[in-house]
Amino acid sequence: MGSRLCLRPLTEADVTTEYLRWLNDPEVTRFLEVGRQRSTRQTVRRYLTRFHGSRTDFIFAMIERETGRHIGNVTLNRIHRVDRTADTGLMIGRKDLWGKGYASEAWSLVLAHAFRDLGVRKVVAGVVVDNVRSLQALKKVGFRVEGVLRQEWFVNGTYKDIVRLGLFSHEFEPKSALKGG
Q1: At 166, which CATH number?
Q2: Structurally, how many domains does the chain consist of?
């Protein structure tokens, strides 16, 4: 549990009208895979089956502690038990909360779980170069740029670079990542 957020598994009960609105909002999803097609309750239910009982893929609802509101999701995906690696992604659906430090806090919480509870030694993320807020949030929790995949992602009629970032468990400092907004 963080200072402003707690994480819990995302469930079908979270697939509300507001949640579907986030998934179908081009501004919210412009840098996300989910933004490439229209989302319905059925497509989200099918997506959630990937996480049911999985030991390698997790999706967490980001819950604002003060209000109890679901404000977005954070994932930990493709945990490789031999290499002890995983990747992560995040979406904040509530645009009024963008730029307020919730992404850094959510990533700090999911990273603490990955490193401490799941034995992951490295987590990676791929971010469209124009997604400045996500890049800042990942760097705030300690991720370092490892490389660039040139013209990897098609966004708004043009191909964009993907910045690949990584963080090792020994580099992670959860206390500093949770300071301030």
Answers
A1: 3.40.630.30
A2: 1
